[in-house]
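Could you join me in thinking about how sequence relates to backbone shape in a protein? We need material for that, and I hope you will provide a protein of your own picking. Label the sequence line and the structure token line clearly, so we can match residues to local backbone shapes. Would you write everything just below, so we can both look at the same thing?
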Amino acid sequence: VIVYESMFGNTRSIAEAIAEGLGPCVDVRVVRVADADATILEGADLLVVGGPTHAWGMSKPNTRKGAPDYVRRPGSDLVLEPGANSGPGLGEWLDALDQPSVKAAVFDTRFKAPAVLTGRASKGIEKKLSSHGLIMVVAPESFLVNKKNHLFPGEIDRARAWGARLTTLGTP
């Protein structure tokens, strides 16, 4: 199961590419965090969670409310994902997560700069999942966006390769 939060479609695109990388022999569900209910992990072997980096970490209600401001900026070609600024985010979903007995992997999208300057949502996601007893099968991964908030060329292919790597870890 891949659960993601996305503001402008970048994290959704990465989640979908990871699912493609997991391959046709694996039953994969890609689910927006707003649509992830308590039963989403039933029968799952692996949980992959990803979100955008906001203010050096996971989004919060106040950072999500500010997302439409980026769309309205002069010259912006960004489109807000449905419910991105009003629905629950990963932090809220992770706080309510039961103690699932699945392995996990995490990713984020963030600006291309040293992580010390941008932060990484994946670190907070990893911490929350670990607090629920999930075991990480791979180090957190970041996929990079430019200053106009678009994925750099090659990031979709890199996400597919990362998804394929997850299958070699014996998880799915």
Q: What stands out?
A: The beta strands are 2-4, 30-32, 46-52, 103-111, 135-136, 141-145. Residues 49 and 83 are 18 Å apart (CA to CA). The first strand starts at residue 2 and ends at 4.
